[in-house]
Amino acid sequence: MKFTYSRFAYFDTNIISYLAKEKNVWSKLRDFLFENNLTLAISGIHLAELSNVRRNHDDLKEMLLSIPSALVKNVDVVISEEIGAYPDDRDADLLYYPIQYALLQENGIRELEEQLGSYNLRKARVELDKQANSMAVQIMKLKQNFPTSKSGKYIREQGSQYSKEIVWQWLSKSHPEFTKNTQKEQLDATRFKTVWVFSQMCFYRYYLNNRTFSKTSDFGDLHHCLLLSYCDLIVMERDLANLLKQIQKRNNQVLQAPIHDIDFLYQQGWKQKP
């Protein structure tokens, strides 16, 4: 099978951190990725979250260089591509840079090391936490103005309208020229898969399940959902995986990839059950 760097596996940061420390499973992970023509996606969210865990950077660097892995495009770039493709679906590649290419470049390894622990990434982590707090306020504020169904509770059928509202608000801030020339009522929010999946996660977690915002990491976790529609395998912590599966049941055209939780690592022999 020809390897293409066009199909991506997206693992959450905790899973990547665990695998980086388990050198004995790297060969199994590498074989699995090659056999399925999958590349481990490393997003800006991953890098920001990993930037503070400096003790793991050497292991992480070694693992990423030993398996098919790649930096993927930032979310803002992908959203701009969705804007450019609208009203059709975005079909651009998610790949930004194959990490193994660092082996072929002069000073490539050093640059990778510097990037993993760079000041800009640590600063990005601080910004991510600020955005998460700000977003929490906005989501909870919207909840006060988003009425329940006649039963007095939120129901799944309201999810589409909620996502449309979030997508519109997001694009109004990120691409005001687009919303200025688009009628809100006619917007097909499902074409903006990045924000659509994120908003569905918010709806299922904080509206249907009536959870309250407890810590910054709650919303930080949801940022990982922004790229999932463009990946071909998803492995997340159990709570996020369960919510994603519920969303997928109703919206399998937007979220098509197989979704797994931590049990996937046990099934593949990458982790031993306690």
Describe this structure in words.
The chain has a 6-stranded mixed beta sheet with strand order 4-3-2-1-5-6. It contains 13 helices and 6 strands. The model has no long low-confidence stretch (mean pLDDT 86). The chain has helices at residues 13-21, 26-35, 44-50, 57-66, 75-85, 108-116, 119-145, 159-174, 176-180, 193-208, 216-223, 238-250, 263-267; strands at residues 8-11, 39-42, 69-72, 95-98, 233-235, 259-260.
What's the short version?
Helix content is 53%, strand content 8%. It has 13 helices and 6 strands.
| Main sheet makeup | 6 strands, mixed
How are strands sequenced across the largest beta sheet?
4-3-2-1-5-6
Rg? 19 Å
Total DSSP E strands:
6
Sheet/helix structural class: alpha/beta
Element string (H = helix, E = strand): EHHEHHEHEHHHHHHEHEH
Helix content: 40-55%
Oligomer: single chain
What descriptors fit this protein?
274 residues, 53% helix, alpha/beta, 6-stranded mixed sheet
Write the layout of secondary structure elements.
Layout: E1 8-11, H1 13-21, H2 26-35, E2 39-42, H3 44-50, H4 57-66, E3 69-72, H5 75-85, E4 95-98, H6 108-116, H7 119-145, H8 159-174, H9 176-180, H10 193-208, H11 216-223, E5 233-235, H12 238-250, E6 259-260, H13 263-267
Parallel strand pairs: 1-2, 1-5, 2-3, 5-6
Antiparallel strand pairs: 3-4
